[in-house]
Amino acid sequence: MKKLIFYSSIFVFMLSFFCAKAQNVSLGLQGGISIPNLSAGGSGSTPLSTGYSSRSGPDFGIYAEFKVSNLFSIQPALEYSAQGGKKNGLQALPDPNPQGPPYLYANYNSTAKLNYLMLPVLAKFGWDFHNSPLRFFADAGPFLAYRLSATQVTSGTSLVYADKAETEPTSPTPQNFDHTTDINHDIHHGNFGVEGNVGLIYKLNKSYLFIQAGGNYGFRNIQIFAADGSNETGAATVTVGYSFWLGKH
Q: Which of 55, 84, 122, 141 fits a disulfide with 112 by CB distance 3.0 to 4.6 angstroms?
């Protein structure tokens, strides 16, 4: 909670600073879909952290745009971002027996659901189409993130094997994997990385509509314990939104 307060204070400070410097300000809402995945990172990877594919979740937020010129603006935001990934089929799981092999294997479904509050500050560039209400834009910049929740949702039944070739079952009875596990104590609270988008604006009188596609990538290894492996978060996003100008633009 202390980190969340700290990050929010930074966001408020940035809003106040740019409001004092910029002549024109707009406020906006955006929402859409996040398609995240977990990238296995470097030498710290283990069978537990590899093999993830993309899942889907919500992505929405509020932002302020401070127009410095017709070409350039600064856009801080506060975003809810779904992160994580999923595995379906044969995958590793830790062996609770310290005398056994390092990993066991089973066929089941597993989804890591990580949800973050993100505070990006984006440099935004835009270009008008000649004699048209359309405007193209691209933005990019760093973000700080605070993890709101982390769960591992598993389902299915399977024999458990002592080897990846599935030749050595540990028991003749299949195991039920229908569980939802709180993994907050295994994942770092904070993260940081970069975000970027490209999109199209339709200008109205004192407001605009937009659609954008982009993504984000976290630089920090999210696992606290080395035995869990090494993963970085990241997501592709598609969002639509509405913004209105508070003053002259």
A: 84
Which contacts of 128-131 are long-range, i.e. CB under 8 A and separated by 24 or more positions? 128/70
pLDDT-derived band at 45, boundaries 50, 70, 90: confident
Dihedral angle of Cα 57, 9, 190, 29, to the nearest 10 degrees: 10
For residue 127, give both structure tokens. Answer: 């270009």
Range of the domain at 58: 2-245
With a cut of 90, say whether residue 3 has pLDDT above it: no
Q: Where residue 185 sits, what CATH number does that domain have?
A: 2.40.160.20
Element (H, E) at 6: helix 2-21
pLDDT tens across 135-174, in order? 999 999 999 999 999 999 999 999 999 999 999 999 999 9
Give the number of domains in the chain.
1
What distance in Å separates the CA atoms of residue 136 and residue 70, rounded to the nearest whole number?
12
- Yes or no: say if 139 and 124 are a contact pair by the CB < 8 Å rule: yes
